[in-house]
Write a structure and sequence with these properties.
Blueprint (H helix, E strand, L loop, with lengths): L7 H9 L6 H12 L7 E2 L8 E5 L9 E4 L8 E2 L3
Antiparallel strand pairs: 1-4, 2-3
């Protein structure tokens, strides 16, 4: 697969022919149009992107399963860049 350089003309050609844009092309186009930068998110390795740390299965204290949010990602499943 040949890697194309991201330019507005390449993206324009794809749109003219009705071809879908890749995530990278969409991100590039948004950055050019808005001046804002989209930062890709990184999946949390502690919860594997689920946002759940574990289930509490102690039926004496909790009659049902209780979901405990992951402490690393605060339950989002993704890490924030700081």
């Amino acid at each position: 697969m040949k890697s194309e350089r991201l330019t507005l003309s390449v993206i324009g050609e794809r749109l003219e022919h009705g071809l879908p844009l890749t995530i990278e092309q969409s991100r590039y186009l948004y950055n050019k149009a808005s001046g804002k930068k989209i930062v890709p998110r990184k999946r949390c390795l502690e919860c594997n992107g689920t946002g759940v740390e574990r289930y509490c299965l102690n039926m004496e204290i909790y009659p049902e399963k209780v979901v405990i949010r992951c402490k690393t990602c605060s339950g989002t499943g993704f890490l924030r860049k700081s």
